[in-house]
Amino acid sequence: MKNEPTGILGNGEYGFEFSKFILNWTPNLSLYTSGRSALTREQSRLVEKHQVRIIEKEIRELEHTNGYLRNLVFTDGSRSAIKAVYTKPGFEQNSRIAEELGCKLTDEGYIETDQSQKTSVPGIYAFGDSTTPLRTLSVTVSTGATAGMMLNKEFVLERF
């Protein structure tokens, strides 16, 4: 929402990096750390230099009207008017099949693959949302095509 009160719900490296990105969309930006800031002094200085406010109050709830965000409500009862908020929710696989087969997961919970989309288990390939935080159809198509080509190559080489 261009030029509207906008927030980033995050802290540390994520909050710092995402502030730089979202600042291109609106000059009315606040970084809500929901508690003590984990930004370094240099990160805080740079963020504040660009008029991004760092709010360290703990957030109790997001207040809305018919699904339209109105305020962040803090544990002390105060409110901050806001029209949009961005955050990075944690990731969890919807299925445990990869784990049950023995596939290694990344620290973030994605199935670990190489450039060919091979997993840590021979003969098993993975692609798309289960392997990357890049949630786009084009990435899914690309990694799926790669997995298909590499699996086909594996079959051909087995018979040759």
From TrEMBL:
Coiled coil: none annotated. Keywords: Flavoprotein, Oxidoreductase. GO terms for molecular function: oxidoreductase activity. Gene3D superfamilies: FAD/NAD(P)-binding domain. It comes from the Bacteria. Residues 39-135 form the FAD/NAD(P)-binding domain. This is FAD/NAD(P)-binding domain-containing protein.
